Model the fold of this input.
Amino acid sequence: MENQNQEITPMPRIGDAAPIFKAVTTQGEINFPADYSGSWVILFSHPADFTPVCTSEFMTFASLQPKFNAANCKLVGLSVDGLYSHIAWLRTIKEKIEYKGMKNVEVNFPLIEDITMEVAQKYGMMMPGESNTKAVRAVFFVDPKGIIRAIIYYPLSLGRNFDELYRALIAMQTADAFSIATPADWRPGDDVIVPPAGSCGAAKDRMENKEGIKCYDWFFCTKPISKETVEKTLIKN
Done:
């Protein structure tokens, strides 16, 4: 009966506005997502400070931060630990941990204190099947308008694939910039998928391989966009 009285917050979905919150972080207070208007954001949670999988992830995120920033994407981390635990853990990472050639790694992006689990609950980061007290490895991609564009969840035991996180970011940005879609395993330089033709004439043109478009059938057409064009459009040097 007690569980029936607890307020259940629905998990946000792709296309929803990112739930609003204010929080204390290792980089000061933030107002999310308003403080990040105009930028993409990867908001990600980890189960706990001073744990090995999370340590490997934070070192990787921090090392890749300039690459994400160049693609107009900010990083914001979260766990249900307190601020002083966060600070001590990040100091330990910088001073003591060397992993895969990474050392003296300083984490400069915000790490949210969420002792009350308020933010984790708003974003559906708590999975009772995994743990009642630790946030799973959730990843939310939030676009410059504050809309959730993609969500990826990992169990506690599985470290994230950072190549895929970056690939997904660039793919979504490319889709927005060029009004296309990206096929399986797409990377910059690969052909992209163009929307289905809106008329018989347009379909005929495509089937005759006009406008650089290659059609495998009327509903499946691709065209090339060079890696250089994608990077020139999306990446800031």
Summary: Residues 1-7 have pLDDT under 50 and may be disordered. The radius of gyration is 21 Å. The chain has two domains: 3-160, 179-234. The domain at 179-234 is CATH 3.30.1020.10 (Antioxidant, Horf6; Chain A, domain 2).
